[in-house]
Design brief:
187 residues, mainly alpha, 6 helices, transmembrane, coiled coil, GTPase, membrane, transmembrane helix
Length: 187
Amino acid sequence: MKQPVNEQGELIDELTLRLQEIEIKLATASLQSKHVVAQSIVKTHIIAGMSLALLPAPLFDIAALTGTQLNMLRSLSLNYEVSFDEQTGRAVLTSLISGSLPVLTVIGLSSIAKIIPGIGTMGGGLSMTVLSGAVIYATGQVFIRHFETGGTFQNFEGKHWQAFFKQQLEEGRAFVKKKTDPTTTNP
């Protein structure tokens, strides 16, 4: 028995609507999955960056911080399927961080403080550790947000992200301090 054309049209419309709903749910699940993976990438690089910052070699820690951030950007770009090249990665990092002169100053002073035997090495290492973790956290959050809104390295504008970077830097400091505080339980 043949269904009337009207009923078939309604059935097709209903199926099309359901397919669209399923596509939206799948796209949302995919984005959520990418977000979870991205946060894991950032946390992994925070640990690596903080570990490298403990090394008592002045200025090496700054190079290690840059290398860790570039590696994180490479991993995030793979996760979000955004093309990456190291030269552009360096340029976007510079444009993002250069707008935060106090951060650059503290990074430099913390690194140079390691030259002073004993207290300088320890104090510089500890402050550089927290700051490295916070900078990596903030950089990661900026690029997660940028990529999730359809951004690429080619259309990244550091000036546009300065306020968010500074906000995330504070969150990053709190995150790192919480994770490194021996009196709290860290999952």
